[in-house]
Amino acid sequence: MTDSSSNLSSGVIDAESTDATTSLIALREVDKNYGDVEVLKNINLDIKPGQVTCVLGDNGAGKSTLIKMLAGRHAPSAGAVVLDGEPVTFASPKDALNRGIATVYQDLAVVDQMSVWRNFFLGQEITGFLGQLKADEMRSIAAEELKKMGVNIKDVDVPISTLSGGQRQVVAIARALHFGARVLILDEPTAALGVKQSGMVLRFVRAAADRGVGVILITHNPHHAYLVGDHFILLNMGRQVLDAERDEVTLEQLTLEMAGGGELDSLNHELQR
Question: Where is the chain membrane-spanning (predicted)?
């Protein structure tokens, strides 16, 4: 972990030392090609502390490629990734994580039969003499961090597979915050959840931003985005077709743009003929 993120072990960013107008991470005129296939073109994005930036788009819009660049899995073909005001090239996803960029994918990277606390510390275990796990310490920390997030899990020794989908998502979010995430990327966290479980996850998305983290919510659901979002980016076939603050767009406009906007009007006109 770099010095700039070493004071984040509690998962809370010092609001006094964080300028809310300064981007934590940004994309500047970014393109991404795979051979002759152009996946993203001229993308500009600013992720600021304490804000939820919602990136919307249908399947094939380029959302997954955007995640991979921010998470250090792929470098842009053109343009720059800017971290704390300086262009950066991530050597690997671990390099991005060490710089405070945490990504929670849909599969959550959990081991179903392991306990909640073991999954909380997966890959970040606390060890003592000869590498022996400090199980009691990790168990206590996991329970306390989840309690801070308002997650009511009576026993962190139960297999994580016994939790609901929403609870597993929140465990992954709490884990990222505990280990110093400054930027939290969430890949379709509500895609497979019902209304109640989605509401649980969205509350914790908002709570993460309220703790000073810059949150990127990837979703195809404009209703979920509008419940928690401060800024909205809409991708369509790799192009950035909407870039708006919350007070610049209504839910109805966002839904219409997501659904195709003018394309729907044209189709409706054609079908009415």
Answer: none
